[in-house]
Write a structure and sequence with these properties.
The chain is mainly alpha-helical. It has a single domain (about 5-170), classed as Four Helix Bundle (Hemerythrin (Met), subunit A) (Up-down Bundle). It contains eight helices and two strands. A hairpin with a 3-residue loop joins strand 1 (about 120-125) and strand 2 (about 125-130). Helix 3 packs parallel to helix 4. It is elongated, with a radius of gyration of 18 Å.
């Protein structure tokens, strides 16, 4: 499937609603209790918020500006463990929804063209990347973390499903 901005936006615009629907009315037994190695749904939502603030749109701005320094700021993949302290999951879901909405409005204002998609920036670890790759990654990043959330939750009952484990790919 070839990248189309409107299709990426379909995913990006649905993620906050998906997470709220999936997590919004669950107990902390389902959504908490993670660690830096095994992120809970709470941790993932905090991570997505940090990305909305410091990753996708800020990096798109750098690419589109085509200034003297095209290098992205490094991304702290664990910032949520400090930034989310003291917040409820509902507060995080609200913040994520607000930030994503703002970022999608800004993306729309950027008026992305095929020519702009080819512009490059410099990732501090990966080297040159173009805007198409950045925006594709943003959408896939959401899907990756939705998968991570579902897997974390499924593993809560892994010891209880007995012989059905062989049929449940999420537990294998």
């Amino acid at each position: 499937m070839q990248f189309k901005l409107e299709q990426a936006v379909e995913i990006l615009s649905q993620t906050p609603h998906t997470l709220r629907s999936m997590l919004g009315n669950l107990s902390e037994d389902w959504t908490g209790g993670g660690s830096e190695k095994d992120w809970s749904p709470y941790d993932v939502v905090g991570h997505l918020i940090h990305g909305e603030k410091t990753d996708w749109i800020p990096r798109a701005r750098i690419i589109l500006a085509q200034g003297d320094d095209l290098t992205f700021m490094p991304f702290d993949r664990l910032a949520q463990f400090e930034n989310s302290k003291g917040k409820t999951l509902h507060e995080l879901l609200d913040e994520f929804e607000r930030l994503r909405s703002e970022n999608l409005r800004e993306l729309d204002v950027m008026a992305i063209t095929p020519e702009k998609l080819a512009l490059e920036g410099m990732h501090p670890e990966l080297g040159p990347v173009d805007l198409l790759q950045l925006l594709s990654t943003w959408a896939v990043h959401d899907l990756n973390h939705i998968r991570q959330i579902v897997k974390f939750m499924a593993e809560r009952y892994a010891g209880n499903v007995g012989p059905w484990t062989q049929y449940l790919l999420i537990l294998q």
